[in-house]
Write a structure and sequence with these properties.
Blueprint lengths: L7 H13 L2 H8 L3 H15 L4 E4 L2 E4 L1 H9 L3 H13 L5 E7 L1 H10 L8 E7 L13 E4 L8 E9 L1 E5 L7 E3 L8 H10 L3 E4 L3 H9 L5 E4 H4 L6 E2 L9 E8 L6 H14 L3
Parallel strand pairs: 3-4, 3-5, 8-9
Antiparallel strand pairs: 1-2, 5-12, 6-12, 7-10, 7-11
Helix pairs in contact: 1-3
């Protein structure tokens, strides 16, 4: 027996031919060239390693093996109908994987609204270490630099600035994430330039903000997050080395898929409402 497996289409053709008993009649019903049908049935026999037909002037009669195969396939038409019905069923919104830094993801989650057309749902993958969008590790990325891969599409969103914030001008020292690999650029800058003034740390950016609100130290935040937090005051002008453009990035081949396109439009509207 050939190691290749017969396709469902070829097996359905076999059942049609078994029912009609005529190659010409089956080809007519299927709107298929007669040589094509004959070739596919010969290939089916080669794949199964069995003589399925008794060919003669009267037409194509089933051999013993042919009848046995037809018996095994008796529910194939119903199976194909169920598969077709399943494919035509609305399976609900598609989960669109979005990768972004912590504060961008937090900011976006508060501003996105459910898609009224039910095309997509956000599935956040907050990550400061960029996932491989070209390799489809995520569907959409929000990045601090434009992509270099030709397989990725990009859209500039807005300018991002970072500022030092505190709950009171009298507060000194900084709250930061612990030093180590995988830090966001703002945290690396804080450790590199103000490391001797870090008074306490927390393992989560939100905890750093909470400690700053409680008065334990100052915190470096993007202005879209810091300005929106009641109880914080700007303590510095924008930190020039941290300012950057924000980019909306997606795979070039999938950006026109309806769920991805709807998500891209919604994200752009949420982050750049003006």
């Amino acid at each position: 027996m050939n190691e290749s497996q017969p396709s469902l289409d070829d097996l359905a053709l076999f059942l049609d031919l078994a029912a009609a008993g005529s190659l010409a009649e089956t080809a007519r019903r299927r709107s298929m060239p007669l040589p094509t049908l004959s070739r596919r049935m010969t290939k089916l026999e080669q794949m199964t390693g069995r003589a399925l037909f008794l060919r003669g002037r009267a037409g194509y009669a089933l051999s013993g093996d042919g009848r046995a195969l037809a018996a095994e396939l008796h529910d194939l038409p119903e199976l194909r109908q169920r598969v077709t019905a399943w494919m035509q069923t609305d399976h609900g919104p598609v989960a669109v994987r979005i990768t972004a830094g912590f504060w961008t993801a937090h900011h976006l989650a508060m501003r996105l609204a459910p898609d009224r057309a039910g095309r997509w749902l956000p599935a956040f993958v907050a990550s400061n270490a960029p996932l491989d969008l070209a390799g489809r590790e995520a569907d959409i990325g929000i990045r601090n630099r434009p992509p270099t891969s030709a397989r990725l599409a990009r859209q500039r969103l807005r300018r991002i600035d970072y500022v030092v914030y505190a709950s009171d001008p009298a507060v000194t020292g900084y709250v930061a994430l612990p030093a180590g690999p995988g830090l966001a650029a703002s945290q690396r800058w804080l450790h590199d330039t103000c490391g001797d003034r870090i008074v306490t740390t927390a393992t989560d950016p939100r905890l750093c903000l909470d400690l700053a609100l409680a008065g334990f130290g100052q915190v470096v935040l993007p202005t879209f997050a810091g300005d929106a937090t009641a109880g914080l005051t700007r303590m510095s002008p924008p930190i020039a080395p941290l300012s950057h453009d924000e980019w909306l990035v997606s795979h070039h081949a999938s950006r026109h898929d309806p769920p991805i396109r709807a998500a891209l439009n919604a994200i752009a509207d949420a982050l750049c409402p003006d």
